[in-house]
């Protein structure tokens, strides 16, 4: 789905559409590399022979999908040749890129070239992802039949019944039965000495069960030593029932993902914990799910070992662990800055909003309060001539509606955004979105007549019903133009 500026709690940004015709030139070509990637990895697309219009565009598609069902996309902005970078989809499968003549509105799909196929598979994390270079890799474990460290510095040692398996469509993985199985890799921040002020650990996991306490990876004492004093990625019932990333600093500093571990059972998920100048972060499937404002780094450079699949308390993991990588930089999967430009997108999986405060620590914090009546209807929309100013109406078109549970103490903030749609809004119609069911229905004007002005034939109105204690917030994104 193509992403443009969001309307959050009554804010929308405009789409500009240019119309032109196909120009002459060399035959259009399109190529994508690499041919196999992980979800959220970068894909490089090289194109040539584009017509040269501002709204020529390229998008990613699952193989055999209709042109209307595009994924990430980009305008070429008049360039006839060049290179673009896309983010691989989270869903596994085979994809391709398609080039189109200039966009001229809904239904305008003048396809002129297709790329070679690209497979999104489960492979080891890539050291080059998101700008990191090989020297930032502290240790890397492919688990493709052994526990060797790809850097050659910190080979792993298997304990218990830990073994390696290969599933169809996935790279080999470490198999753990949750009863004394793990990999010991030693102190990876020594020999050579590494920066402890920032770092990241990422891995692929597929749980077979989720006990109250289990650890994907931790640094501290040896197995059975009952003391972790570094990083900790897993669950800890004393702090949360969810997946967490923690750093020991005289007590645990906790970044809570909000994701119950049961949600990780039976499917491959990418998880990552980071520490550094942005504080503590926990990422799941390339989306920032939790933060904690602690920048103290790892406190003990002389910890005994990193254990993969458990910790010193013997809180073992039951399932599969794919490639594991540890870095001495704080990795990320999306730019969290707001530059004030019209090019908006996501902040760690949350919608950015043109008039919201998206500084670190306060993502998408609205300056405007939500309605405070015990029961009311919140009006989301913007006037046609001034879309960046709060207004009551929406232009007809196709929209995605984002719903999330409101973060305590913040207005307009959620760390659990979910997308619904696409929904088509028609002029002259009022709609009511059910945040509990994720459904949209048209409503008769008389149902809301006491609360709204007459809807004009060229615009639509969108509402959602809420109460004062309702934890939900909403954003709306236009989705029918590239």
SSE order and pairing:
Layout: E1 6-8, E2 29-33, E3 36-37, E4 42-48, E5 57-62, E6 73-75, E7 82-87, E8 93-100, E9 111-114, E10 118-120, E11 137-141, E12 157-159, E13 163-165, E14 173-177, E15 182-186, E16 199-207, E17 215-220, E18 228-236, E19 240-248, E20 252-256, E21 269-275, E22 280-284, E23 287-292, E24 305-308, E25 318-327, E26 346-347, E27 350-351, E28 375-380, E29 397-405, E30 418-425, E31 430-434, E32 439-443, E33 461-467, E34 472-478
List the keywords.
single chain, about 475 residues, mainly beta, Immunoglobulin-like, Jelly Rolls, 3 domains, 8-stranded antiparallel beta sheet, 7-stranded antiparallel beta sheet, 34 strands, globular, disordered N terminus
The helix content, as a percent range, equals under 10%
Task: Report how far the terminal alpha carbons are from each other.
Answer: 9 Å
Count of individual helical segments: 0
Q: What is the general shape? A: globular
Largest sheet, described in full? 8 strands, antiparallel
Strand proportion:
35-45%
Number of domains: 3
Mean pLDDT: 74
If you consult CATH, what is the topology of the largest domain?
Jelly Rolls
CATH class of the largest domain: Mainly Beta
Describe the overall structure.
- The structure is a single chain.
- This protein is an all-beta fold and 482 residues long.
- The protein has 3 domains: 6-11 and 341-478, no CATH class; 29-120, Immunoglobulin-like; 133-327, Jelly Rolls (Sandwich).
- Helix content is 0%, strand content 39%.
- The strands form 7 sheets. Strands 11, 13, 14, 16, 21, 22, 23 and 25 form an 8-stranded antiparallel beta sheet that branches.
